[in-house]
Write a structure and sequence with these properties.
Layout: H1 2-9, E1 15-16, E2 21-28, E3 31-36, H2 54-68, E4 72-76, H3 88-93, H4 103-117, E5 119-127, E6 130-136, E7 141-145, E8 155-159, E9 168-171, E10 175-179, H5 192-195, H6 197-216, E11 222-225, H7 233-246, E12 263-266, H8 276-291, H9 306-331, H10 333-338, E13 344-348, H11 358-370, H12 376-382, E14 401-403, E15 409-411
Antiparallel strand pairs: 1-2, 2-3, 4-13, 5-6, 5-10, 7-8, 8-9, 11-12, 14-15
Length: 431
Amino acid sequence: MGRVMDFLFGPEPPRDEATAAPAVTLMGDDGPRVVSLGTSIAPTVAGYGALMSVDYAACEQTKARSLSTLPWSVVSRGGGWESFPDNPVARLLNGMANEAMTAVDLLNWHRLRCDTFGTAYWRVEWLRGEPVAIWPVLCGVQQDFDASRPRGRRKMFRLAGDKYNPAGNYFADEIISISTHITKNGSRGESLARLAAEQIGLSVDLERFYASMLKNGNHHMGHVEIPDKSIPEAMRADLRTAIEQKSGVDNAGKAPIFSGGAKWVTDQQTMRDASVIEQQTWVLQQVCRACNVPPWKVYDSTGITYSASQQARIDYVTDTIVPDVRAIEQAMAPVFASMGRPDLGLKGNVKGIMRGDDASRSKYYREMAYMGAYTPAMICELEDVDPSGALDRPLFPLNYGTVEPDGSVTVHSQSHAAPADGSQTGTTDNQ
C-alpha cells in the first residue's frame, strides 16, 4: 500500500529538523529540492500538496479524464494518408503502456505531473529496435545539451533513478519531455500550481473556513451575554461546556442551557453577508483560468446558457485539449525516427469528445460523404458500428463535374450530360 501511495502522491515528506515542520520535496528538472513550509500551515501548494485544493484537483481531473479517453493512431506523414494500428507505439498508447499500468493511467499521471511540476517525462523502453513499454519518470531529471555531440545525441537527460527507471544518462529517443505551455527556455515548463499558488492557497483557506464554521457551530452565529462579569470560574467553565455542546452539525438547532442567567444572542450577519460564497466562486474562476479549464467543466454554471454551452464545449476542445494532444504528438517524433520511420507520426483523435447529438452527427457525416471525404465504412467505424456490408468506396454526386487544368469540365454521369451551367458547353468524357 505504501508503494501505491508513493506513486500517487510521492514519498513521505521529510521533516525540517530546525523547525520540526513538514517539508516538501520538489522533484524538478534541477533535481530534488526541499522547501520548508513552517509550522503554521500544511503543504498546500508545493508539489502534489496542491491537490488539497478541491478547485485545483477538479481542474486537473477534468483535463486528465478528457486526455486519457482519446484513441491514438499512428499515421503516415509522407503525403498519402495511411494508418498503422499494429505499430508498437499505437499498441502501447491504446492498451497497456507497461507492465504496471494502462495507457489511461499513464496519461492521467502525465497531465497532473506536467501541470504540477511544469514538465512530465516518459521513458521509452526499447527491445530489438522497437518500443515495448512507456514508463513514467518519478525521479529528478537534469537536461544537458552539448552541440559538439553527433546530431540526434546532442540532448541528454540524467535521471536520478526511481522504482521504474534506472539511474543514468538517456537520449531524446528514450526520454520524452513534455512541458506546460508556460516556459522560459523552451525545454522546461513552469509549474501551474506554483504560479497559481496564491489562488490555490485561498481555495484551501476557504475550505478550512467552511469546516471550521461547521465544527464550531457558527452556521448559527451568535454570542453569550453574561449579566455579571464577576461570575465564578466554575460557572465560566460550565458556560464553555454548554457552548461546545452547541457546536457541530449534529447539535445544530438544539437549545443549550446556560447557568448564571447567561443567554444566547443571535448575530444578524450570515455567511452570505460575509460574501463567502462570492469569494469561493471568484477563487474557483481564478484557478480555472490558471489551468485553462472553463468553470462549467467543474460544475460552476454561473451565467451560462444552453447556446453558450455549445460553443464552450468546442472552445474547451480547441483551446485546452488540442494543444496538450499536439505537444504529445510532436514529442514522439524522435521515437519514430529511431524506429527508422521518420515518415510516421502520432495522432490523437479528439472527435470523440466533440460528438454532438444524433441529428448533428448525421448532418456532418452526410456532408462529408457527399464530398467524398468519408466512405460509409469509415462512418461505421467512427460510430463503433459493424462496417460489414457497408460501402468502402467514396460516393460522388452524379450532377457534379470535375474542372480540369485546361478549364474543361469532366462529367461523371453515365448519360454524359453537360452540367446545367450554359457557359460550360463541352465535356471531356471518355466515350
